[in-house]
Write the structure tokens for this entry.
Amino acid sequence: MEHTTAAAQADVSMSLFEKRTSTYGAWTLSAGLVLSLLGPISLLFFAGLDITPVMVGVAFAAVAATFGTLWVVEPLTYFPILGPAAMYQANMIGNVSNKLLPAVIVAQSSIGAKPGSRRGDISAVMAISGAAMVHLASLLIFVGVLGTWLVGLLPVGLIEVARLYVLPSLIGAVVVQAIVSMKQPRTTVVAVSIALIIQFGVIPLFPQLAFYATALAVLSTIVISWAVRGRKVVQTAASDPGPETEVVDRPDRPDHAEEKGS
């Protein structure tokens, strides 16, 4: 009885948390969008640069043609790991793939929280908050205060090596961490196979698609992984919901039922 009451209170608290984060997150992102546009708008109307609406449209089309696929692909790929509340944080802060996502994956793996679960969502929020605090503190100290002095001490060759290999090494570590924590061998095999096919098969044949290689790999992996998913598990859950899945507020989350029964 006590366990049931605690679980019900947790449901109410989590629902309230999600409702508030959805409300404040949308408003905060909207405010951030408006503030980020104030600078370009001031240049457009008050700087006397003779920028015409046609020039703005052409520039937007060029950016959209280059990065437009990422506007769709990134939210789709980040959401299952970050959850709704952390998605607002991540999109407001930026540097998702090379800073926030690694922090979330490491945090979830450290406490054994499955992405998409309540623990996973809360740990994502805490991880992003911690990553942002560390980032701001390090920027203040190592860039704002000591930046020029430190860069002057580093050899030019070391800076070039760091520029080439820091990001690939970071992304590689994140990929390994994601494979270990997600434990989805079928999807992993599909993703690796698709990446190899696109990198060594499609791109050499069609070099004009090189810039869209990441988007093609992600979308192809999503489609093929869904096509070859474990249908046995889905059918069992749908045909026999059981007492642990009767009271759920987010049935789309993979281990929500497990948490309610724990």
Observations:
- The chain has ten helices and no strands.
